[in-house]
Amino acid sequence: MSVLSPAVETLRQMIEKSRNIVFFGGAGMSTESGIPDFRSVHGLYNRTDGKSYEEMLSIRYFLNRPDEFWDFYKRVMLYPDAKPNAGHYALARLEKQGKLKAVITQNIDGLHQDAGSQKVCELHGSVRRNLCIACGKVYPLAEILSKPGTPHCDCGGTIRPDIVFYGEPLDHDVMNTAIRAVTKCDLLIVGGTSLTVYPAAGLLGYREAARLILINHDETPFDQRADLIVRDNIAEALNAAIPQ
What we know:
Blueprint: H1 6-17, E1 21-25, H2 53-56, H3 59-64, H4 66-77, H5 86-96, E2 100-105, H6 111-115, E3 120-122, E4 125-132, E5 138-140, H7 141-145, E6 159-163, H8 172-184, E7 187-191, E8 211-215, E9 228-230, H9 234-241
Parallel strand pairs: 1-2, 1-7, 2-3, 7-8, 8-9
Antiparallel strand pairs: 4-5, 4-6
């Protein structure tokens, strides 16, 4: 473990004094679990060749070229062997202590739930769920991976992952749940996200009296509004700041 900055001790103190905490996280939360950060300067978005990730993860591309989509999706987007890291477990710990009221995530990997978190708002859906676009039958990820090529339902319909494609709106109920949580919290911890993807980043606009903590290696558009900025490794910072 690396030497952590004094900001982590301040983070610990702020968590200790708070009673209604919300964590809002992005791809950087899962990089310690071996899942790439797609949007950072080192991320996969900057290593594309040919079509953009936005195009290949769009609803139009899925509907028009399902075979190409599923080939790309299975090769690039799925990490079925990934495990939660220390940061995921620290947040689950904080929830069990009664302080963390919600985890709001842009990630689709399901690692927060694997670590034990119960109150998770998945803004962009989850790779763990897949459904037939004809009849709505739900399929787990393991069954999808066992099907070669484009997976099809027993009814013959094409199966899609239960994620939010580019060109689709966020789930209304999930977004409203996230907004309510942010509105009520007294401490909003934002970690591992560039805060450039909307409408997800717009959640910060619903913060009322809550203090804002940003845990991110890189600068974000919200740095000047933060009460505390932590540049340390997010998993190590959360693990150190949240009591066992």
